Amino acid sequence: MNLKERTTRGFFWSIVERFGVLGVNFFVQILLARVIAPENFGIVATVAILLQILSVLVEGGLGTALVQRQQITRTDISTAFYMNLCISLTVMIGLILGAPSIAAYFREPALEEILPVLALVLCISAAGQAQLQMLIKRLDFQKLTWISFPSTIASSIIAIALALYGFEIWSLVMLRLSYQICSTSLLWLTCPREICPNFHFSFTSLHKLAGLSLGVLGSNFLMRVTRNLIDLVIARVFGPEQLAFYNRARFFQRAPTEPMVGILNRVLFPVFSEIQHDNIRIRESLRKGIPVLMFFISPVMFFLIASAPALIVVLLTDKWLPASEYLRVVPLFGITFSLAAIKSNVIRAKGDGRLIFILSLIRNGISISVLCLTWQYGIMAMIFGQLVCYTINMTINDFWTARYINYSMTDQFHDWIFYITTGAICALLTYSIELLHLEPSILVLCLQVAVFSVTYMGVCHVVKAQGLTDGLRILSSVPKLKKRTHVDS
Prior knowledge:
With 489 residues, the protein is mainly alpha-helical. Helix content is 86%, strand content 0%.
């Protein structure tokens, strides 16, 4: 199967996997939010912040190196596995021993009980990282679908059952832990033997992988710290309940953006790595992908901004209404994040670990500085400050994309500005319905959905937007691709 066929098949199965998991997770999170108090969500979110940051150390950047390297041996895979496992055990023990101090710092005694349990997630995740990255390298997202989807279903059933029986905070803990146990177990049971670790460890392999992995490790660690620093400040200064409201707003923003960006990143990075010296093909791929991405992302983000109060009340009930204030702004993170993330694949595929780390220092240094200046003025000031940082990050990636593959910043701007402008105009029209003060909230939300969707799709259809035409072409090819995929299987 040639690269184009593997890429197309990879896109299809990545879409199936990401949006299948997204649908289940969205339903489960809405259901749990209606049953569980916001404060409990905030407590578990505090632990999740720490795990997200430390998971970068566990993965160590070696997974990225496995994908980026064109020639990989089983010894390389085993070396990455043992390094990830050793680091994860060290981090896990540190978290268990440090649980009382962490609970005291955040002034939340419940952290002392749940942190040692959730620390297991890091170690369990590390045990399957090597196989996971090799499946991504092979663009074998069909197998990943049959791993992540059953794991999501099983962990969701466990969490919902515990929540309905009154184990509120432990249902959220088991949601994460049970998913990781299921997915890692399936990785070991279903992956081909040649991509599973054996008993060989090689310092030569470690040295070979370390060139890129150290730069990626430093970059990813700084990025995770910066992205989660605002959450840590909210948890420490404003308490777990405000963190829960902020996280609910980010949940609605991330639900559509991160799966779509994740699909593109999981496919484009290995593809760009394989054609890393063919700048023309990389540029053509980006120029086709960006309009389609923004055609879908932009309207969803602007609709969230326009309909925030009605959406929160209808889906989560009145107890979550304070989250709507944050939902008026954080969707703008999704737009700038999406544009920056898709172009970061060009920089990573070129394999310059030193540049990746230096750019990360610059971006994250700016972000931390802005956060230090804004936190004393409240949560909204921090949010607007981070929006500025996301925009700077996007601009930096634009500059290096232009330099690497001759895709000028003017052309990049031209490829996405239409969808941002159209989305903003539609959001203003949709927001006007809220000013009518209609009741109940479900009526307001239905009217807002109708006005926004008809207006946005109408404008895109009239001007024959590239994102619409290419998006419809992709969707129309799914049945044919699905049939062919089943035959290939």
